[in-house]
C-alpha cells in the first residue's frame, strides 16, 4: 500500500507525504475514500489534509476525485537538474523544432519510466500521448530506449522482465529489446516505429554530463523511411551542444 502511515504518532508531515505518495501511474485520480485507504489514514483526517492541499494547489479536484496539482509540478521544476536541463536545452530544442516541425521531447529517467520535462509541438506535428510532466514506458519510446540503454543493470533487468504491449508493434521480447539496447549504445541513437502510438515513429539521442547520460532528446515523425539519418545527425549535434554547456556549469 502506498505511503501507509497507520502507525500511531505519525507526524502531520508524514501524513501529508502519505497522501501525496498515494498517487502513482495507475492511480492518477483518487476518490477521497480510496486516497485515505492508500495513505493509511482515517477518512476525516484525509479529508482535512486534502482540503489544505487543495487550497495550496498541491492537489486539485477532478470530477468525483482528486489529482496532483500543478503547484507540485512547478516546484519539481525548481530541482537543480530539471531546471538546469530545461534552460540549457531550450534553444537547441527550438532549433530542432523549427527545422523539422516535428514534436520535440526532452526526458529524464524516473525509475522505470521516462519523465518528460519538455515538449514542443506545432499544428503539423504528429499527435502524441506525451505531455510535460507525464511519464511513459522506457521500452516503448525513443527517449525511453536511450535512457534504458544507459540505465544501471538492475533497472534494465527489471524493465526487460516486465515488457507491456502498448501497440501491436511494441517490442515485448526481452532478447530482442536487449539487442537493441546494445546497438543504441554503439550507434548513439534509438528509434521506434509505432511502438508507443500508431502512426508515430521517433528518433532520440543521449545528453551527457560529466561522463553520465542525464537525459535524452528526441523527435516524433510519421515515418523514418527517408529521414532517419538526417534526424539522428541533427539530434546528435544538438545533444552535443547541450552536453558541452552542461559540462561548463559548476557541479550541482
Q: Can you characterise this structure?
A:
The chain is an alpha+beta fold and 252 residues long. The chain folds into 2 domains: 58 residues, Arc Repressor Mutant, subunit A, CATH 1.10.10; 172 residues, 2-Layer Sandwich (Beta-Lactamase), CATH 3.30.450. Helices cover 44% and strands 20% of the residues. The protein contains 9 helices and 8 strands. The strands form 2 sheets. The chain has a 6-stranded antiparallel beta sheet with strand order 5-4-3-8-7-6, with helices on both faces. A two-stranded antiparallel ribbon has the order 1-2. β3 and β4 form a beta hairpin. α5 runs antiparallel to α9. It is globular and about 60 Å long. The N terminus is likely disordered. Keywords: DNA-binding, Transcription, Transcription regulation. It comes from Pseudofrankia inefficax (strain DSM 45817 / CECT 9037 / DDB 130130 / EuI1c). Pfam families: HTH_IclR, IclR_C. One of its GO terms (molecular function) is DNA-binding transcription factor activity. One of its GO terms (biological process) is negative regulation of DNA-templated transcription.
Amino acid at each position: 500500500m502506498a505511503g501507509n502511515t497507520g502507525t500511531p504518532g505519525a507526524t502531520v508531515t508524514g501524513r501529508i507525504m502519505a497522501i501525496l505518495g498515494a498517487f502513482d501511474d495507475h492511480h492518477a485520480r483518487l476518490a477521497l475514500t480510496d486516497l485515505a485507504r492508500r495513505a493509511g489514514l482515517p477518512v476525516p483526517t484525509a479529508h482535512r489534509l486534502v482540503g489544505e492541499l487543495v487550497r495550496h494547489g498541491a492537489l486539485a479536484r477532478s470530477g468525483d476525485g482528486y489529482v496532483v496539482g500543478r503547484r507540485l509540478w512547478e516546484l519539481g521544476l525548481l530541482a537543480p537538474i530539471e531546471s538546469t536541463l530545461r534552460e540549457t536545452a531550450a534553444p537547441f530544442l527550438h532549433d530542432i523544432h523549427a527545422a523539422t516541425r516535428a514534436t520535440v521531447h526532452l526526458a529524464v529517467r524516473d525509475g522505470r519510466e521516462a519523465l518528460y520535462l519538455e515538449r514542443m509541438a506545432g499544428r503539423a506535428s504528429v499527435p502524441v500521448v506525451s505531455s510535460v510532466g507525464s511519464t511513459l514506458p522506457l521500452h516503448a519510446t525513443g527517449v525511453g530506449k536511450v535512457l534504458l540503454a544507459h540505465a544501471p543493470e538492475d533497472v534494465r533487468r527489471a524493465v526487460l522482465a516486465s515488457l507491456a504491449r502498448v501497440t501491436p508493434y511494441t517490442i515485448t521480447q526481452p532478447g530482442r529489446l536487449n539487442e537493441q539496447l546494445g546497438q543504441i549504445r554503439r550507434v548513439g541513437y534509438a528509434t521506434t516505429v509505432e511502438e508507443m502510438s500508431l502512426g508515430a515513429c521517433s528518433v532520440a539521442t543521449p545528453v551527457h554530463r560529466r561522463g553520465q547520460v542525464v537525459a535524452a532528446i528526441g523527435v516524433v515523425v510519421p515515418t523514418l523511411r527517408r529521414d532517419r539519418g538526417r534526424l539522428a545527425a541533427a539530434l546528435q549535434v544538438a545533444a552535443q551542444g547541450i552536453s558541452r554547456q552542461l559540462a561548463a556549469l559548476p557541479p550541482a
